[in-house]
Amino acid sequence: MKPRITAAAGLVCAVVILGTFMLFVGGTGSAQIAHTCSPTDRQFIDVAQLNMAALSSTSEDYLHGDEKAGSVIAAAATSLKNIKGTYPSDPSLAKTRAILSAMFVEYGKAIKADSTHKDAGKYIYRAYGLANFAHDVLAQAKAPLRQRGCDVTPLL
Q: How far out from the chain centre does Cα 100 lie?
């Protein structure tokens, strides 16, 4: 790809991102999000917590040699399926759902690469970056969600 095309594509992406940011930011400089705590929001929190714990446990066993890569890959795929089966109405939880979905995909790719003696670094780097991004989204939404009856502390 020619450098001019790449630079132009980057500029277009920057303008779209900046425009989207300005659309959601009010005059105070903070996002104007209307949080909710619906039954589907609570379901998402429970499902996310359960699947994160299951994947963490299976991954820990894999690292200690007590579990095969296929089990971790299957746990990541199951976690992805379970998360995609939720439909939170809160904007922060919906964003977290998308981020966790991508994280499960990248983590599965990392374990697959590791099991075939390939470099898993780029996948694990993405998975942990996505996990950090999800943490940031949830940390920012923690207080308003708690005021409405949803506690995201177990996900942090």
A: 3
Domain ranges of the chain: 1-32, 36-155
- CA within 13 Å, CB half, 44: 26
Structure tokens at 151: 């506690």
**Is this model's pTM higher than 0.90 or not?**
no
* Residues facing 25 on adjacent strands: 31
Judge contact between 155 and 45, C-beta under 8 A.
yes
- The span from the CA of 62 to the CA of 69, in Å, is 7
Q: In a 10 Å sphere around its CB, with 0-12 CB exposed, 13-18 middle and 19+ buried, how is residue 111 labelled?
A: buried
Tens place of pLDDT per residue across the chain (156 aa) = 444 444 334 434 443 443 444 344 444 445 567 899 999 999 999 999 999 999 999 999 999 999 999 999 999 999 999 999 999 999 999 999 999 999 999 999 999 999 999 999 999 999 999 999 999 999 999 999 999 999 999 999
CA 146 from centre of chain: 20
Q: What are the beta bridge partners of residue 31?
A: 25
